[in-house]
Amino acid sequence: MIGVRAVLFDAGATLVHPEPAVEVVYGRELARDGATFTEEALSRALTRAWEDVHREEKEDRYGGVRGEEGFWRAFLARVRWELDGEPVSPSAFDRLAAHFRDPASWSVYDDVFETLGALAAGGWRLGIVSNWDSALPSLLEGLGIAAQFSVVAVSAIEQTGKPAPEIFRRACARLGVAPHEALHVGDSLREDYEGARGAGLQALLLDRLGRAGPGVDAIRTLREVLSRLSS
What we know:
The protein is of the alpha/beta class and 231 residues long. The chain has 10 helices and 8 strands.
């Protein structure tokens, strides 16, 4: 890859992942809240609710800093409605919100620290561009990876998100590089790969399961980033 001076990363499913899985946590707390469901029904409800709230949102992902609680309440209400049509109790919402803001509920992929260290040693500037709520910076701090990044651009704080080009361009400007001098790496074909390229950046799709279609420039592990930059 030619002329890359900075490397940007997505956060969720690229650098970090929930532990235990999202389905396990929602299932536990919704059952505690009185809902009855099968694993298949919960999986369908989570998918449909996520699609619905994102279909209705604008570029300010998660409602911006002031509106993100409303975003998550709407999402959770839709999940519960899909399951049994009942409301979600305030205590269930509070438990879920606290869980996902706790760094102990997340894990860093085992290829992250090695990759970031090698890139920093090689002189590349590092940043994050993520569709997340405003808790991401403190979450990264708690997981011990925040210091690796000069820039963390979060959709709820920026009030614009991927795949729109603005959040990518802001991150590049703060890193002091032109868009074509930056490489973005993430797991979403639309938001990360196509979004970054649409903003003028170079891009790699992180495809840990090997499901990328033809014509997509994909890698299976973050360890491949350095070799791709050096080729």
